[in-house]
Amino acid sequence: MAQIRDWLFVVAALLVAGSGPAGALTTFQGLGDLPGGDFRSSGPAVSGDGRVVVGRSVGAAGFEGFRWEGGQMVGLGVFENGSCARGFHGRPDFCSEARDVSADGSVIVGQTATGSRSVRAFRSEAGTMGLIAMPTPGPSSVVFSEASAVSADGQVVAGEISNADGIRAFRWTESTGAVPLGTIGDVPVGTSRARGISDDGNIVLGESVNPLTTSTLEGFRWESGVMQGLGGLPGESLRGGAWDVSADGSVVVGRAYSATEGQRPVRWVNGVIEALPHLLDVDGLRIGLASAVSADGRVVVGLEGQVIGGNRTAFIWDPENGIRSLQAVLEAELGSQLAGWRLEWATDISADGRTIVGNGINPSGRREAWIATLLPEPHGGWLLGLAVLACRRRAAATRTGRGQATRPSAQLVMPSGWRYGSRRSSGASQVGVWFGKIQPPGRQLEGSRPDSRRSRRMKERR
Fold first, then answer.
1. Domain count along the chain
2. What residues of the chain score a pLDDT lower than 70?
3. Closest CA relative to residue 225, chosen from 171, 153, 154, 188
């Protein structure tokens, strides 16, 4: 039975080694759409755990927000089953739109119609949609509001209010209500829009205009009651915007403007701006945006394209690989599974940097949201080598008749965390072996304690 078990282990290792990173580890699929309307969907956000996508599609009543999980898209409807806002210029009526989702997918924020000409910010929890109350003093009463971002725990919301005073970013909690954040320079005639929020809800990102200075958009970072302008590229105007931030607040991503190149995707690392490299060779002005960043700040996704002609390409960037076409990365792993797709914009990324969502053109020429998951290579060669080694050790133990494996003459150099017999090696690793079984670093397999009485007896015999 022991030999059969070992050979089964070898077969399993061969399957893992043969599958490589392109097996079931890297995945891609379109999200589909809501029934009843034109085929169209967009997905601006994914939950931190990578399971839930939110956005909008076209249902029977018009544009409607959705929540997608496990292959199922469910419409969010309209507030209190009321009427949708009337569409203009032949566009569908507007019912609702989901803009962001909490880390576990339980809280969704966005905007919903509350009548034929009224749109308000909402927060939905456990399937119940509630309006986010806004300050309505006298002639400055709210005529429009939108919730565009939510903290990881779903308890802090950022968005924008539009009224007679202009457009202002806001930050909402249950205890404070919606508090306008002002503008860069805190001038009464400026505008601001919130685009993103930190996991803990203490930092709000967006863009603001101060007409008393530059009269152009500038990215901002708001924290502890202070809105700070992030500045632009050296030698350029301040035009730009901030869209997302890493978990510790040290890395902000967004866009900045160049007079000769157009929009550039950028990072601000500890307040210092850095333009990402070009992905495409285009003629004329570019359109570019870094729309999301992983929790550790190392993986950035977004889009780059050409202003004239409208061609756009989703990108992924990290320090080791630089900027790459996300479609090319996925095609190298999945081949024909992406045939006919054109990935135009990577809109968001999960906390671990593995799950990416975005918008594109599907093989039927329709706009459709999509989700892709990238997982690291499982080191199949190492698994195979360790499997064969385990079998050799057991065979050697059988020959000696001592119930104990003899050590091979050739030394096998293993990374840290891998186990060979009762020894731990050095270096970096993902998995290990304990008496022929796979064991992650720092974990013990059930019934396989290194300091068991059996282990001590074996050591004494040596």
1. 2
2. 1-24, 89, 136-142, 212-215, 238, 376-462
3. 171
Same domain? 111 vs 243: yes
Do the Cβ atoms of 41 and 57 come closer than 8 Å?
A: yes
CA dist., res. 401 & res. 326, Å (int): 56
pLDDT at 15: 45
Query: Is residue 152 located within the same domain as residue 132?
Result: yes
Question: Closest Cα to residue 123, out of 137, 133, 114, 115?
Answer: 133
Looking at 371, 389, 410, which one is the last position of a domain? 371
Task: Report yes or no: 118 and 77 within 8 Å, Cβ to Cβ.
Answer: no
* Whether residue 416 sits in one domain with residue 300: no
Q: How many residues does the chain have?
A: 462
Classify 50 in phi/psi space as left (phi over 0), alpha (psi -120 to 50) or beta: left
Residue (of 191, 168, 200, 164) closest to 181 by Cα position: 168
The residue whose two tokens read 């039975």 is 1
**How far apart are alpha carbons 377 and 398 in whole angstroms?**
34
| The predicted structure's pLDDT at residue 75 | 96
- Final residue belonging to a domain, choices 327, 353, 371: 371
- DSSP 3-state assignment of 395? helix
Residue 23 lies in a domain: no
The tally of CA atoms less than 13 A away on the side-chain side of residue 160 is: 20
DSSP 400-425: HTSSSPPPPSSPPP--TT-EETTEE-
Q: Which amino acid is at 27?
A: T
| Residues pairing with 128 in the sheet | 125
**CA 66 – CA 75 distance, rounded (Å):** 4
- Which tens digits make up the pLDDT trace of 267-324? 999 999 999 999 988 777 889 999 999 999 999 999 999 877 778 999 999 999 999 9
Is 54:64 a contact under the CB 8 Å cutoff? Answer: no
Q: How far apart are CA 293 and CA 273, in angstroms?
A: 15
CA–CA separation, 388 and 421 (whole Å): 13
**Is residue 241 located within the same domain as residue 302?**
yes
pLDDT score recorded for residue 428? 36
What tokens were used for 70? 């496990």
Q: Which residues pair with 356 in a beta bridge?
A: 349, 372
Residues spanned by the domain of 186 = 32-371
User: pTM (2 decimals)?
Assistant: 0.77
pLDDT digits (tens, 9 = 90+) for 413-455: 434 443 433 333 333 333 333 333 334 444 444 444 444 444 4
Query: What is the token pair recorded at 167?
Result: 């457009």
DSSP H or E segment with residue 154? none
